[in-house]
């Protein structure tokens, strides 16, 4: 995907490369922000960039605390304007530190959609720092982690499969497996058998039965 | 239909008028269904169109049976009564399939669940938009649910646009008058717990208190008044706490576990209880992957917990170090007999054990001394049955028996089908001459054996390195037996079982007992057709001679020689009627679990004179009152069993108090309520005050031009389960239902939104579905949007700080530079520990075009959507449906989502072939029954094999 398009789309302002590959470049205006302390496990250096944090060659990140935004509502718009068209992936990291966030976030959502910026909301400096380091660390990571996976061991597949039925929890999966043996046997279990299992009430039994026995398509 | 009592009539008179809309709150157990059904009958005519919504499936079937209402299949235009689920109704109303103007009224059941977020309020809003004349009648019998929050009653009435409310608590004048003319003959039996039970009971309460204290300490902001042990007895407690705070899940679920334990202590037999405890310990100390668990529930560390586990085991058996213990507690003679009979049945298979000295069965390890504590209520139950028997005999032996109404059937009511099974088991096997507290010895021994067998199996399994923990396979020894003999084919076993069932009856008959058969269909069978899982069981208890023998039958079932059975069944066919005709009612005992209003019908049909309430239940007492009052001249005796000074008693009393309190609150609220003004109907959405939202920018100077096209959002049909469509409609959007292949909501021609609630988000990250969905959205739309929607009353935050700390450094595990191979294998084990945040990061990195909307509630979402729509053209319905749908032949067909989810999880099933599989195979069961070849044909060679192996893993040896 777009994780490593090293080519063109080069931003108009001079591209700043970090001294070490693993460094996050921080805009000097962010100096003194407690957030910087919370960025862990990656190197940090200051550099003249259009964004606040440059967490990848094509990824720029703006930071906004809602408290600050309330005092200076025009600030973020100036920043976005300054950002221009730079970066392939543009992030607005919002620190949600006020209770009346509804309208502000709504407003910002609209602004960002127009300016092709993706919003990420964090609720603490720790969390925000975690996001920044994640972005840097995952710069070259493949998205396999969130793709549908195939190879897994039997138990976890069975667990994921059966817990997809609503109301069935991990313990129930064990109960089912140990009482019936195999997936096929579970699929053939009768209502009475299921009813007799510890922890299986009527609703759960009904859910299990309907998952296995109701047709996939009801117009068939 | 049963007769109506005076108060029923009074209620009907109050609310039947089709010109008004009413809300009826009736105390539970007083026959709400009867009222609803009579009302429906009044309205039933081909000229009117009356809809019934928000009924549970059980209610639907039960009401349907009583009145023969057609389901949704009947055409709306035909008129009459129609039951319909709200989701379908909403869609039909939106698409105009139902003539809204012609609806004469809507009946809403379970009105306590109505909030601005549910579909019912959407239905009513849609109705009122076009039709002001129709009536709305709402019903509820759950006053407890309408008491939390600020003016809850008003909110419900506002949502339903109802201005009149009728409240009928049990203490209402009319109800009192009609019910208390004749009081039922109630015998209250308070049974003490055994010493060890009391110990455990006390310990559990201690643990609950400790957990509650912990909860209070860690969350100072909680509303502390509600947090008492008494409240914790109720299921609703978890809801209260969750409402107040989401994070401390561990403690809250601990409380739920403890509450269950209390319940199980009183209802499970000693072995099941101990098995459950074992399981609890296992699941608490070991994680899924087999490693030791770090965060154990705090209460398991307390001394009290130790008492629970220890005493729990001691109720079953004790372990002694020497094998030379004094002769066991088992009653020698009785047991000898029993085992003899068992051996006879089982043939050579277990020859050694009957002869074992000191009547110790061979399977019993020498270090185990059975204690076999029985539940005290069993003893009590046998006494009660004895008394009933004597009473019947006494009445019958009277010279001139007075004309007796009702049948002599004894009805035993218990709280769950599980308890029913247990009682049934006990009654079938108990020994009337046994010592006090040891009457069910035969059954308990069997359970001990089952338990030991299970334990053995467990160890075996552990040794095989499977690292998993089985749960006891429950009360049914048949299941266990079946497991142990997996080599016998399923079908054969089924046959065996059927035959054995019949064989069992045959044996009894030979034993000279009155003919009575378990396999005989019970004569009152509403539960059978109501599709509910209920166990109505006939257990004969007069045939005491046969008990020892019949008690063993479950054991030999699997072993009985089928040849002998064939002969048996032949015999059966010919002589069936002689021996297996209907049993005289006085010889039957019916054991049932409490359920809802359908209990009324059971009472009406059975007309029992003796009712044993094995566990206290307020509703059922009222049912008996109603039953008694509607059958004048019928003498009913009720035995009401309670464990004295236990949570059962407290819960019962607290339940009554709670109901009374909530009624009082409702009445108070009604008194002081400012009636909501029902807003005037709006002709068509999208034309009201907000209409000028699409301002044409071509005209300078603020000249506004009215856009004639109403603002429109296209919503996927599956999304109608959520509350957002309703809120979008409330925010003056035209909601267009459609079956969308891509996305959930199409807001503008360019913006496509996929909505995810937090649990949804996590699961679809795990399954990888979200990635696929984003992929598709990116292909078809210019602005793919992921909507992360938090719930209204929950915190607007992804994780609590406490949980944050634990992964403050997990990123160390994923240094950016690593050898590729290492990274790949590093993924799977630590997978679960990666926080949601990291996955969001990865998702945005993969889809730079994807926007994320963070919405604190569905209300906020509706506002955001309106914002996004401003100055943008309206989406096109036909285009949206067609988008991305080219590869699926079944677009628009109804889909069994839970089955689809499950199917997607199976190995060998990929997003690419899942649609194909679903079109080829009827259901999952059919898929499981396919052989390797069939699956390989379907999925391809490798995936097919993988799938087959997964499905059949763990079978045979």
TrEMBL record, chain B:
Biological process annotations from GO: double-strand break repair via homologous recombination; nucleotide-excision repair involved in interstrand cross-link repair; resolution of meiotic recombination intermediates
Record organism: Coprinellus micaceus
One annotated GO molecular function: damaged DNA binding
Family designation: Belongs to the XPF family.
Record field: compositional bias (Basic and acidic residues): 492-503
Name of this chain's protein: ERCC4 domain-containing protein
Domain of life: Eukaryota
SUPFAM superfamilies per UniProt: Restriction endonuclease-like (SSF52980), RuvA domain 2-like (SSF47781)
One Pfam family here: ERCC4
